[in-house]
Amino acid sequence: MSAPRVGPRQLAFALPHAESLTRDNFLEGPANAAGLALVDSWPEWPNRIMLVVGPEGAGKSHLAAIWAEQAGARSTSARALTASAVPAALATGALVVEDLNSSEFDERALFHLLNLAREDEAFVLITARTPPLAFQIELRDLRSRLRAVPAISLLPPDDQLFRALVVKFCEDRQLAVDESVVGYLATRIERSYAAVRRAVELLDAEALRLGRPVTRALAAELLRGA
Fold first, then answer.
1. Does the N terminus or the C terminus of the chain have fewer Cβ atoms within 10 A?
2. How far apart are CA 17 and CA 24, in angstroms?
3. Gap between the Cα atoms of 199 and 211, Å rounded
């Protein structure tokens, strides 16, 4: 007797997705209006070096990308910045320094950057999750420089922005969702940028694994098991 034929199994692959970081795709609301106003007001900034502070997922990188496109700015992460790389980083007269945090950056490199930017009259946009004034910084002169940098704060999302984020993150992953899914997620997950991103990522992965469409029922099953 011949063995039964087994049909091919469907494999689920987590394909990469592109998140749009253009000006047209930025979701504006009261929570981020100050950050967007800063970007739109360039080059009429109150200071050539500015800081945007906000929680994970608040749109700091999106704002930085919009400004970089407008200003012809180069971009680097704070942790990758070295003193030797500073002159080249400022070559276009504009630079984004992403994700400045309390422990993963070279203090002397950042101090060199702030000094050279001031000398060259370059523009620098720094992003951080928490204000640098709360960091334990050894270089006293660097503490003084950072204290003089004006900071713009991004706030937690209001209800309208939160629901719009659910839709946007689903669209970025090419997930078709209706209002019942959006409403369910918006009322049952933590009111934060990071939480809505994680929820959509999990929903996408579960729908792909099960081969099911994204529905309110699937969202309920997922959140009950979380």
1. N
2. 18
3. 18
CATH of range 159-224; options 3.30.110.30, 1.10.8.60, 3.40.50.970, 3.40.50.1240: 1.10.8.60
Q: Which two tokens stand for residue 68?
A: 């970089």
Alpha helices in 148-215 (DSSP H): 159-172, 179-188, 193-210
**Which pTM was predicted?**
0.83
Spans of all domains in the chain = 33-153, 159-224
Topology (CATH) of 33-153 = Rossmann fold (3.40.50)
CB 128 within 8 A of CB 142: no
Distances (CA, A) of 164 to 27, 66, 197: 7, 19, 12
On whether the CB atoms of residues 88 and 125 are closer than 8 A, the answer is no
The per-residue pLDDT for range 126-179, each reduced to its tens digit, is 999 999 988 999 999 999 999 999 999 999 999 999 999 999 999 989 898 999
Q: Which two tokens stand for residue 60?
A: 């700091």
**How far is CA 213 from each of CA 8, 175, 195, 196, rounded to the nearest angstrom?**
21, 9, 21, 19
**Single-letter code of the amino acid located at 34:** A
